[in-house]
Design brief:
By secondary structure, the chain is mostly helical. It has twelve helices and two strands. InterPro entries: HD/PDEase_dom, HD_domain.
């Protein structure tokens, strides 16, 4: 039930400045509230939207992945002493994998979905463009062969690092095999064990082709996971990546040893 004393106070003041929630809490709408909605209400709508859009995805790109990326985004931003728009980072982190190209078949579907949804929420146009830019910058495939990606804004660096960190470590390994199973990829090919780190750098088109289907799951480790630590941008992200990379490296050495017998 609502706290009656607080409710009376709200009714005496400008009710348009407050929002009352079903859990009985009352939140003051700050000057940063957008289109008559508080950050909390906006985030709730985003969460519902993302959950619905990703409900049929396999565990490699489900809502749990999104939650981990949002949490990592917060951790990195705090450690990097980020002083910018935290709401912007979280919005981008929540929306970054909606209509992902690996599932939708379209490189632009994700950005278009984010733009339309945020416009429906009366989110400021300048912020919508920044969110969409972050979503585009996050992409691993777009960075292949693109040296200009080194100059992306700090906002993009933070969310990009968060997404890449979730592709590393134990969770990253599990996600890789989950996606491989979805695509019915083989675990490995015999020639996979002859590969070395950095033996070849895929172009964007080559990477997209192998990600859709046709490559072994273990090849994906060489194509992406083993080189991710060198593509992390923030200092915090680099520290976090070392431990996660070490886990992947140990598993690689075990596989290599097992194959020698």
């Amino acid at each position: 039930m609502f706290d009656k004393s607080i409710q009376i106070k709200v009714e005496k003041e400008d009710k348009d400045k407050y929002l009352m929630f079903y859990d009985g809490t009352i939140e003051y709408m700050s000057a940063t509230a957008t289109g008559g909605r508080s950050t909390r209400m906006l985030m709730n709508k985003i969460i519902d939207f993302v959950k619905n859009e990703m409900k049929n995805n396999d565990p490699s790109h489900d809502f749990k992945h999104v939650e981990r990326v949002v949490d990592l985004t917060r951790q990195i931003a705090k450690s990097e002493n980020y002083q910018g728009d935290m709401e912007l980072l979280e919005v981008a982190a929540y929306l970054h994998d909606v209509n992902d190209w690996k599932y939708s078949g379209s490189e632009t579907a994700g950005v278009e979905a984010a733009r339309l949804f945020l416009a429906d929420q009366s989110y400021p146009e300048d912020k919508i463009e920044k969110v969409c830019q972050i979503i585009q910058d996050i992409s691993f495939k777009n960075e292949l062969g693109n040296t200009s990606m080194k100059s992306i804004p700090i906002e993009s660096m933070i969310v990009q690092d968060a997404d890449r960190l979730d592709a590393m470590g134990a969770v990253g390994v599990a996600r890789t095999f989950s996606y491989g199973a979805l695509k019915k990829n083989t675990f490995y090919e015999e020639e996979t064990f002859q590969r070395t780190i950095g033996d070849k750098t895929l172009t964007k088109d080559e990477y997209m082709k192998t990600s859709r289907a046709g490559s072994s799951t273990l090849d994906h480790f060489y194509d992406k996971l083993f080189i991710l630590k060198d593509r992390i941008k923030t200092q915090t992200g680099k520290r976090m990546a070392q431990e996660r990379h070490q886990f992947i490296w140990i598993e690689r050495e075990r596989d290599k040893q097992n194959n020698e017998y």
